[in-house]
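Form 7-S
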Amino acid sequence: MKDSTFCETDQQYHNGVCLELYNNEIGICRANRGKDGKVYVKWGYPQKDKKPIEKSIPWKVVLGTKSQAIEMLETFVSLLKGEATKQDSNYEPPDDSTIPF
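Output:
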């Protein structure tokens, strides 16, 4: 999934983000494209008591299942557009009566 969803945000160093599926949960990962064209997820060492732990983990934000990820990303798009979201007290769902299916 990471190779097909990679979005390059820095053309000089080929850094970006990608989606990754792990245990039926989708996450947004920090990644870069190598000289060989492959996408590599960045890994890091989280801290515990201000000291890095021994095991590295991918730099990612878990969005949840596919339906949860879609809802989360739609919320972010709405926020970026300045639209009301489901979390707003004045939110009104869109009128679906004109959808042909």
